[in-house]
Design goal:
The structure holds two protein chains of two kinds.
Chain A: E1 2-6, H1 17-31, E2 35-41, E3 49-52, E4 55-60, H2 70-85, E5 93-97, H3 102-112, E6 116-119, H4 124-128, H5 134-149, E7 152-155, H6 158-168, E8 175-177, H7 185-189, E9 201-205, H8 214-222, E10 228-232, H9 238-247, E11 254-258, H10 262-271, E12 274-277, H11 286-293, E13 298-301, H12 304-309, E14 317-319, H13 324-336, H14 338-352, H15 357-376
Parallel strand pairs in A: 1-2, 1-5, 2-4, 5-6, 6-7, 7-8, 9-10, 9-12, 10-11, 12-13, 13-14
Antiparallel strand pairs in A: 3-4
Helix pairs in contact in A: 1-15, 2-3, 3-5, 8-13, 11-14
Chain B: H1 3-12, E1 17-22, H2 32-45, E2 49-56, E3 60-64, E4 67-73, H3 82-104, E5 109-113, H4 115-128, E6 132-135, H5 140-144, H6 150-165, E7 168-171, H7 174-184, E8 191-193, H8 197-205
Parallel strand pairs in B: 1-2, 1-5, 2-4, 5-6, 6-7, 7-8
Antiparallel strand pairs in B: 3-4
């Protein structure tokens, strides 16, 4: 089975969960015998063509043209991707991720008459809550178009399935839920780290953007007396958050590390008593699985994929999304009750084992086979006599 | 030159079919281009099998004055500016062009008009090896006088990309030919002056050089 995966992010160019998903999925699909070619982006600092972990990687550089904004930058990238794809031979199936590569996926689908599979990781409406300008409306409509054109749509949680169904009008029977996985190497590398844990240290790991809810943790910290908070990550909200910590009188207890490398992150994880994921919008939340596998108790907001991964009181605690008061209560409860912490950690470790990139790849491969079965039984394909 | 391109150029010499791609054709009139094509295409159709892929309110296939018309509706409505809109429109035009090519079972010569339908031509050339002709009536430089914004620069760069990918660029005046040579670095041998159907057919035949 020859698969063309089109993605705007792939190592070494990683922005968020999408890139990690595509990277791990591609490697595991290749290990199962699928012939995977990844068509992605380069800014000139990575190879235009290489083979890594059994995956063929082809990159195009969009900086041969100028663009007035991000939308047209993405469109230019997609145009060059279509031209590059033409030289890569024929494929059984095209798989694109989010609106960012919808343009090239739809174009190739119609020219090649090959089935298109789309993973919709998140939506513009979900991220923004409201579509307030033409760029946001354009992205939203591209998501609709992608869901319309795709043979099957993959979402990483039931929450996202419902969102794609309700906000993009995609028929529910066209959507498959395939969960993300996590990298167990992190847990193995850290098996000796438990002993270093410091008392009453609350950790946040993520981009410092509104939808991740870091401000809720700073506010919760001001409601608690004796705990310190480490905020790992960077983003547009950082100056605001630092100001908020000063204003609330907790700047001596809240540390901002900025972006850190994996090794540093691991040592920070070792210090943490609890990991908090206070997201207001979270399609899945890979970071929660990493913390669970590392033996760190977790507190999550009751939204998105987090709500499906965690059962309150069994493998983590949940709080009402958006409420710093409820978050503060959950933090106090976990920090004050050693027995609860031990119980949650034990259950969380076994819950985390239910998720793996191998399972993600198995289920995706099964979906590919189903799509190709349907395609082969269908008339929509190039004529046998076609000459090109 | 790739094998499939060479193979197809040989086929073009037999002039099996020509596919024009435009963002306007009567009754959808935006500017002068629609009237220009309304006069030209029926004349071309008397000489070679002629298809037109054009923006429409709905998808559909009709035939007028010997021209087989594939209409393609816009899939999205909102775009932050004309450059973003044209990229999306060209994927819709490509849907119509792909339907036409798959119906034919073979690849025609593709003729696009200005940058607004040029991107679809670039796609078809890349994936089907179709010989590509682009008519240039105006450019961002002639319209705006100067590239005074990033949007203008972005449009200019797309124009340059489409013109460079074309096997033949067709103009209606010696002044435009000079403009393209001077501002886009195009080789004069790739630019043909064609003011009517006969001259255009002659230019098509000259593609192989």
């Amino acid at each position: 089975m020859r698969i063309l995966t089109i993605t705007w992010e792939y190592p070494p160019h990683i922005v968020g969960g999408l890139g990690r998903h595509v990277h791990n999925l591609s490697i595991h699909l290749a290990s199962k015998g699928a012939d995977v070619t990844v068509l992605s982006f380069t800014d000139g600092t990575s190879e235009r063509h290489e083979r890594a972990d059994g995956v063929e990687i082809v990159r195009v550089n969009p900086y041969v043209m100028r663009y007035p904004d991000f939308v047209s930058w993405i469109e230019g990238l997609n145009m060059l991707m279509v031209e590059r794809a033409a030289d890569l031979g024929s494929f059984d199936l095209i798989h694109v991720h989010d609106w960012l590569t919808a343009y090239s996926g739809i174009a190739l689908k119609h020219m090649w008459r090959r089935p298109l599979v789309a993973t919709i990781h998140a939506t513009e409406l979900g991220r923004r809550k409201v579509l307030s300008n033409d760029s946001e409306r354009h992205i939203h409509e591209m998501e609709w178009w992608l869901a319309y054109e795709a043979w099957k749509v993959i979402c990483c949680s039931k929450y996202m399935m419902n969102e794609v169904h309700s906000s993009l009008g995609c028929p529910i029977d066209k959507i498959s839920v395939i969960h993300n996985g996590y990298d167990p190497k992190l847990a193995r590398a850290n098996s000796a780290g438990m002993s270093k844990r410091k008392a009453r240290t609350v950790l946040f790991v993520g981009r410092l953007v509104y939808e991740k809810g870091p401000h809720l943790l700073v506010e919760a910290a001001s409601l608690l007396k004796d705990c310190r908070v480490i905020i790992v990550g960077d983003g547009a909200m950082r100056p605001y958050l630092e100001g908020l910590a000063r204003k609330l009188g907790v700047s001596d207890r809240v540390t901002f590390t900025g972006h850190v490398d994996d090794e540093t992150l691991l040592s920070i994880y070792e210090e943490a008593s609890v990991l908090v994921i206070p997201s207001l919008y979270e399609p899945f939340g890979i970071v929660v699985l990493e913390a669970m596998s590392l033996g760190i108790p977790v507190i999550v907001s009751n939204t998105g994929g987090l709500d499906e991964i965690i059962t309150d009181g069994r493998d983590g605690l949940k709080f009402q999304s958006g409420s710093p008061e409820e978050l503060a209560k959950a933090i106090a409860r976990i920090l004050d009750d050693e027995g609860l912490r031990a119980r949650l950690v034990e259950n969380a470790k076994s819950r985390a084992k239910e998720f793996s990139w191998k399972t993600t790849a198995d289920q995706t491969l099964k979906l590919y086979k189903k799509v190709l079965e349907e395609y082969n039984a269908n008339d929509w394909k190039p004529k046998a006599s076609a000459r090109w | 030159m790739r094998d499939k391109e060479r193979l197809h150029l040989a086929r073009v010499m037999k002039m099996r079919a020509v596919m024009h791609i435009s963002w306007e054709y009567p009754p959808w009139v935006v500017g002068g281009l629609s009237q220009e094509l309304k006069s030209l295409l029926p004349e071309i159709a008397k000489r070679v099998r002629t298809m037109l892929v054009v923006r429409g309110d709905t998808d559909g296939v009709t035939e007028e004055e010997g021209v087989r018309i594939f209409k393609s509706a816009s899939s999205i409505r909102s775009s932050p500016h004309i450059l973003a809109y044209i990229h999306a429109l060209n994927i819709d035009l490509l849907r119509g062009a792909s339907a036409a090519i798959h119906e034919e079972g073979s690849v025609p010569l593709v003729h696009t008009h200005d940058w607004v339908s040029g991107i679809a031509g670039v796609y078809i050339k890349a994936c089907f090896g179709a010989p590509l002709v682009t008519s240039v009536y105006t450019t961002e430089l002639t319209r705006s006088k100067a590239l005074g914004s990033l949007l203008s620069m972005g449009i200019f760069d797309i124009e340059r990309h489409c013109f460079n990918r074309s096997d033949l660029v067709v103009v209606k005046s010696p002044e435009m030919k000079e403009h393209l040579k001077e501002n886009f670095g195009l080789d004069g041998g790739k630019i043909a002056l064609a003011r009517n159907a006969d001259e255009l057919m002659e230019a098509y035949r000259g593609i192989q050089g």
